[in-house]
Amino acid sequence: xxxxxxxxxxxxxxxxxIMRDKNTGTKDFxxxxxEIAELMVYEITRDLPLKSVEIETPMGKxxxxxxxxxxxxxxxxxxxGLGMVDGVLRLVPAAKVGHIGMYRDEETLEPHEYFLxxxxxxxxxxxxxxxxxxxTGGSAKMAIEALKKHGAKNMRLVVLVAAPEGVKAIxxxxxxxxxxxxxxxxxxxxxxxxxxxxxxxxxxxxxxK
Length: 209
Ligand code: URA
Hints:
The protein is globular. By secondary structure, it is an alpha/beta fold. It has helices at residues 10-20, 26-44, 82-91, 138-149, 164-173, 201-206; strands spanning 4-6, 50-57, 60-67, 72-78, 96-97, 99-104, 111-117, 126-130, 133-134, 154-162, 178-184, 187-188, 194-195. The strands form three sheets. Strands 1, 4, 5, 6, 7, 8, 9, 10 and 11 form a nine-stranded mixed β-sheet that branches. The protein has one domain: Rossmann fold.
């Protein structure tokens, strides 16, 4: 079974409260989404392997640690996932960025893939799939399936707000994918929105409503 982890660092909780507030405007919403993604990646990368290197400080030779060179990729689920990419790249600037485009049929709530572009060596990379909202899990499931089909082996799903329904869907479909969220919310409403949630993440990130 994949692990589900809520990263409830006080800074993350505080920032998420600002994002949830309906009076928070596009500029702040976008900046804070990126900041939370950065803080989440800081936590999630705690297990990155290190290796020993010899360097010379002004005081002399010493053996210290550096990253063992594990390759990372971040794959936002378009379009709302874009709001988390900058935050990830601030901490992992060498990560490659893939894109997967999914849209949700407003009536059936079913996800459809319309775009996919991945780094060619995706199978060698640890992949962070990012999307602010894990609602029914439909888009994330489809995105993870598409990535698997293209060779991705080692994936983690990183979201800001998760609904229990979405977490269950990913756990059942992909025992090998760990899920990280900044918060686990109460439920989905009849329109597929997370409650209390933060509304439509894409619209609030890009000011389209
Ligand atoms: N997508 C969103 O942007 N918000 C939700 O609450 C659910 C899905």
